Amino acid sequence: MKLKPLSLALLACTLSTSAVFAGGLDRSGQSIQAFLQPGNYAEAGISVLDPDVKGNDKNGKNVSDMADDYSFVNAAIKVQATDKISIGLIYDQPFGADAQYQVQNNAFSEYNQGTSVEVKTQNLTALIGYQPNRNWNLYAGPVWQTVEADISLRGNAYAKPPAGTLSGYQIKLSEKEAYGWLAGVAYQIPEIALKASVTYRSEVDHKANTSETFGFGTVQGSDALGLPKGTTFKTQAITPQSVNIDFQTGISKNTLAFANVRWVHWDNFVVTPYYLATLTQALGKKQNLIDYSDDQWSANLGLGHKFSEKWSASTTVGWDSGAGNPVTTLGPTEGYWSLGLGAQYSPAANYFIQAGVKHLWLGDAHAQTGGNIVAEFEDNNAWAYGMKIGYRF
Q1: Domain limits at 129?
Q2: CATH classification of the domain holding 163
Q3: Which ranges of 215-259 would DSSP assign to H, the alpha helix?
Q4: Domains in the chain: how many in total?
Q5: Which of 44, 79, 138, 191 shows its CA 20 to 30 Å from the CA of 118?
């Protein structure tokens, strides 16, 4: 079995939606496969998720769909500078959250406002690779990352009897940049389409300027704590380290098998803003804004087949463990199973258009706050859509 390297690359039409609803805040999956393409290569893609996450509060009342639709983009460019040196840039939006509880259920709403969360990140990875021979590739580089967030807690789910309630608490983390790094190794045998890689990403330590208010914006945290007006708090948020393992191999003349395994160190992830920690300590028990109890594991397996010089397709099966259960009310699912289909059209030998769809069966979860189970979320699902354009130059 011998295939041309370009034909082999076109078979691997995996979706960019591989991790759109993963454990913790994971979204993009942080792939570096664009950097491992042969020759000079560029791509750009978009992924869209349409989730449906419903449940019941602790009193058995319905909690309607609280998960907002969202989209994220990715782009990459790789240049083979010499026979042994390659350089590249990869942009993605690796972590995030979007949720908005409706106002009809007072467990998660008050004064016509619902609990909401919006977390955004951006990631730019610069890579340099060294290929001592045609089989091996050693690569590493710095990572620039930003994070920002806006979270509001509303409703009696956040009551802290008998002392008080956290309903009315709001926090905004200003966009803040920080730096990490990446390193990995890849091995390939082009004649049989075999390619394997292991990539490690470091954690990134953010210390973001923070505005915390309580009482629906009427009381500034610094005032309530007896601090001088204008006191600025900083909140630490360390996005987790991770490892990606990717593998592919040709199994017949026009068919390729591929797999990805990902580990993310979520069980060490804790966000504890100063005012929230002080307030909850006064109410009886210090509380984190976001934390997870388990690491996330995920796996995707697939087959790609080339039908003609212009058309190829793929199918994938995916699993994600989630990051523990009970979970935060800001993201009340625990992992998923998924099934995806993708197609690729190549109008010419040097560029292609890819599109795909994936259905996700989301794991049931107990939503908790302050150590108390406040809602159950069961039998939920999501649809993911992706499109990508790739160009070889």
Answers
A1: 5-392
A2: 2.40.160.60
A3: 221-224
A4: 1
A5: 44
